[in-house]
Amino acid sequence: MFGLGAFSVAAQSRSGWELWTSEVVATFGLVLVIFGLVRSGRLTAVPFAVGAYIAAAILFTSSTAFANPAATVARSLTDTFAGIAPRSVPMFVIAEFAGAALGLAALRMLFPSIGSRTHRD
């Protein structure tokens, strides 16, 4: 697309505490949006809310909100403005796991019965 090859290793270096912290915040928020809506029974709103959240997080976080280890790895395979150099990927993935863990901890506080609820068909 646009004259680029299907795969090219990204050259955009992304490192620094401000980017990693931003990635923790972006992932934390994404986990809260998804599981908060699911837990509250608003399943049909999840796709729209995730899209809106990611769009806002891309604009308002310094890391441009990768918020997903799979997306981070995929973005290392494109040398565009959204790319991330392979040497920057490990710290982003660590930040995303930290954000996910913090998000899950927050969910346990917001929804205390989350682990005790049984599935009913």
List keywords for this structure.
121 residues, mainly alpha
Count of DSSP-assigned helices: 4
Sheet of most strands: none
Oligomer: single chain
Overall form: globular
Rg, nearest Å: 16 Å
Q: Tell me, rounded to a whole number, the average pLDDT.
A: 85
Series of H and E elements: HHHH
Count up the domains: 1
DSSP E strands, number: 0
| Class per helix and strand makeup | mainly alpha
- Segments where pLDDT lies below 50 for 5+ residues? none
Distance between the termini: 45 Å
Q: Per DSSP, what share of the residues sits in E-state strands of 2 or more residues?
A: under 5%
SSE blueprint and pairings:
Layout: H1 17-39, H2 46-60, H3 69-75, H4 89-110
Helix pairs in contact: 1-2, 1-4
Can you describe this structure?
With 121 residues, this protein is mainly alpha-helical. The protein has helices at 17-39, 46-60, 69-75, 89-110. Helix 1 runs antiparallel to helix 2. The radius of gyration is 16 Å and the shape is globular. The mean pLDDT is 85.
Offer a concise description of the structure.
The protein is built from four helices and no strands.
